[in-house]
Amino acid sequence: MTPVAQSAAVQPVKSIAGRGGLVDKYFYFAMGLLAAIVVAAGFGRTIDRGLIHPAIPRPTILWFHSAAFSGWVLFYILQSALVRARNVKLHRSLGWFGAALGAVMVPLGFATTIVMKRFELHTLHRHSVAEFMIVSIFDMTVFGTLFTLGILWRKKPELHRRLLFIATAGLLSAAFGRLDKNLFYVYVDMMIALGVVRDLVVDRRVHKVYLVAMPSLIVLQCFVVYTLRTASPWWMAIAHAILG
What we know:
This protein has one domain. Helix content is 82%, strand content 0%. It has eleven helices and no strands. The chain has helices at 3-16, 22-43, 47-52, 61-84, 88-122, 129-152, 157-171, 173-179, 184-202, 208-230, 233-243. Helix 8 packs across helix 9 (184-202). The longest helix has 35 residues, at 88-122. The protein is globular. The termini are far apart.
């Protein structure tokens, strides 16, 4: 094969994989769009009867939580698009809005969990609400931790983008749970695993963020699911104390 023919054969591969290829350029933006699709598919099933037109009006805090959650997904898409467009200056300026939004989402998420579980227990008279609190509390704790690290390491793009991607994927457990109440964490981990595939395709190695975060998350998720399924007494005591 002549050098010209070899160059023509290699070029299509480089245009997809490797630094500067399509995967490198569009991965995080595509993941933002995927997150939006998951949210629409998951919450689209319940938002009308659960929030917009419920038989019994929901607490107002749920509206704020839904707005903040949706706003974060849209913000993630916007920031990924700005990086793709090489508008780093605007990306960094808007980053402070994202930092404020993320900082609000954590306490808002905890407060919404408590208010809504009390509402379900005392107003809707639903049983088994205490067990499920651990999922929401865990998810917000993970998001808050990864989000904080992402902000602290904002000047290290390779750390920053992966931490915020994993944090955003972790938030999708509620949406995945409405699609499959048993395997929601599996779908979250599958989405995060796409980041591992991206690293292998682009960098030919897996970044240390995934090497630390993924095993840790899987172990903790298994612990949360076990606690949920077995209604562990220690957790039930804490949950009942919170719910009053």
